[in-house]
Design goal:
The protein is mainly beta. It has four helices and 21 strands. The structure holds copper (II) ion. Copper (II) ion binds next to loops.
Length: 448
């Protein structure tokens, strides 16, 4: 009880101090493992309808009904996708976004997906994992003629599966230009135990040379890695209520495999690209490898409050390329001099217009140590450049070491959950916590 009181006091202090809805999940968070009983438990009733899937940062594709058939209008087109505050790429996607909007339908639905091609070349769309008539499978020259630029094709089928699927162009270079989206098929009744929160994340990687905007689809090495079309810290956190049961679904349509790791919780893998897995296969884990062309669903009870990292654990997938700040020169490693590095980082900060909080301290004789620097100088806070309601209440400089395929699972006690979700609904962005206030985001001595 006392830890909970401390927790809420922090929230009240933050609200009082700022006159706004800033909440802090701070250093006085309750110890882990103390909240196995949810304050507002879900009913866990069998037979209830599944909750919709939220794809943070990506919209759903809406549909109309034509004589009982759900009709979706999917537009393949070039997209300008902002993947980091200082990087917007020219990729290809659907309906203005990359990855494309999430399609959600129910087992038993008849769906018609009208694909319109606004690309400069032909394409066909494949429904990955769906057991549908051959003519609908989207194989150019085999099951259909390619859809020419400026033309449309209607795919129509009845859905008899449920699980995590995807749609994508069946041409490899178009795939690497980003032409993929989630296709979620809900069962008639929620799987038991029913989840309170359900999220989807699309894994993609990109090779973009400095000062270029078009991904090099022939490259075999990647310098930008995204969750739902954004590099951390521009990703949108997953916000869940303490004690709730959570499902997170990942799909991968790239050139690399991604071991997805969750902090603070043990999960079970409940689904693959083939649908729901039998409970006998649900072994405990905290990391799941999401291979190319695979989907993985995992579930857990969010019993530990905190701002937990959810990320790919490939070390090079936890970085963002900052090579653009050096103009045409390639930056192979970061600088080893404090003053020069600070100057480079400040240059980028000025270009993007974000607050530059000084990096973590280095030893006075750091340059005498072989191998220095490694992660020194990589931390670069940009809280304000990536501000969004879902980030309200995070500690100051939270974004400094958030990079690449990474996001936060925010497990919030009911009061804070309601406050933040209210901000999300209103679109309210709270001001940052005060310097030197209730925060663990800055190193000793504060920002310079
Ligand atoms: Cu990865």
């Amino acid at each position: 009880m006392s830890s909970r009181r401390t927790f809420l006091q922090a929230a009240v202090t933050a609200v009082a101090g700022l006159g706004g809805a800033s909440r802090v999940l701070g250093i006085n968070s309750p110890p882990v493992g103390t909240h196995s009983a949810p304050a507002n438990p879900s009913d866990r009733l069998q037979g209830r309808a599944p909750v919709p899937v939220i794809t943070p940062g990506v919209k759903d594709l809406t549909c109309t009904i034509d004589n009982g058939t759900k009709v979706f209008h999917l537009i393949a087109e070039p997209v300008k996708q902002k993947i980091a505050p200082w990087k917007t790429i020219d990729c290809w996607g659907f309906n203005g976004s990359c990855p494309g909007p999430t399609i959600q339908a129910n087992q038993g639905d008849r769906v018609r997906i009208l694909v319109e091609n606004r690309l400069p070349e032909s394409l066909a769309i494949h429904w990955h994992g769906l057991e549908i008539p051959y003519a609908m499978d989207g194989m150019p020259y085999l099951s259909q003629k390619p859809i020419a630029p400026g033309s449309r094709l209607a795919y129509e089928f009845t859905i008899h599966q449920n699980g995590t699927f995807f749609y994508h162009s069946h041409s490899p270079m178009q795939q690497m230009m980003g032409m993929v989206g989630m296709f979620i098929l809900h069962p008639p009744q929620a799987h038991a135990p029913a989840v309170d929160h359900d999220f989807g994340i699309v894994l993609q990687e990109w090779a973009v040379l400095p000062n270029n905007t078009v991904p090099n689809t022939a490259n075999m090495e990647w310098n930008w890695l995204t969750f739902n079309g954004a590099c951390s810290p521009m990703t949108t956190p997953l916000i869940v209520r303490l004690g709730g049961r959570v499902r997170i679904r990942f799909i991968n349509l790239g050139m690399d495999h991604h071991p997805i790791h969750l902090h603070g919780h043990t999960f079970v893998v409940t689904g693959t690209e083939g649908g729901r897995q039998p409970e006998a296969l649900w072994g405990p884990a905290n990391t799941v490898l999401v291979g190319v062309a695979q989907a993985r669903d995992f579930e857990f009870v969010a019993k530990n409050p905190g701002e937990w990292m959810l990320h790919c654990h490939m070390p090079h997938h936890n970085m963002n390329a900052m090579s653009d700040l050096l103009g045409d020169r390639m930056m192979m490693t970061s600088d080893t001099e404090d003053a020069r590095t600070l100057s480079q980082m400040q240059t980028l900060a000025n270009q993007v217009g974000f607050e530059h909080v000084h990096h973590a301290p280095i030893a006075p004789d750091a340059n005498k140590v072989p191998g220095f620097p490694q992660d020194a100088f990589m931390d670069m806070g940009m809280d304000e450049a990536v501000a969004k309601p879902e980030n309200n209440g995070l500690p100051r400089n939270w974004s400094a070491m958030m990079m690449g395929m990474m996001t936060l699972l925010r497990v919030l006690p009911p009061d804070l959950y309601d406050l933040v979700m209210n901000d999300v609904q209103r679109g309210y962005i709270a001001p940052p916590p005060p310097v030197g206030g209730h925060s663990h985001g800055e190193h000793e001595g504060g920002p310079r």
